Design the sequence.
């Protein structure tokens, strides 16, 4: 039996490896967790800080430093205050 004729296998945890087709999943907003929103919100904070810096004429390093400081509470909340279980 050649390699292309072998049925796809998953590893011992049931996770399909690269190149193996798995069932497609759809994004359902009601199934998104709090951490999905945190992960989406952190880059948005940085993007808005950059946009504000461009509009207000603030140097890039200042705008990004403020954006980084504004995103620190999100990271602390996601990792230390309410860690994933």
Sequence:
């Amino acid at each position: 039996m050649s390699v292309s004729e072998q049925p796809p296998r998953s590893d011992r945890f049931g996770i399909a490896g690269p190149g193996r087709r798995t069932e497609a999943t759809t994004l359902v907003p009601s199934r998104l967790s709090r951490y999905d929103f945190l992960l989406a919100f952190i880059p948005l904070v940085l993007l808005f800080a950059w946009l504000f810096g461009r509009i207000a004429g603030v140097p890039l390093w200042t705008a990004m430093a403020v954006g980084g400081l504004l995103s620190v509470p999100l990271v602390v909340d996601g990792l230390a205050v309410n860690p994933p279980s």
The mean pLDDT is 82.
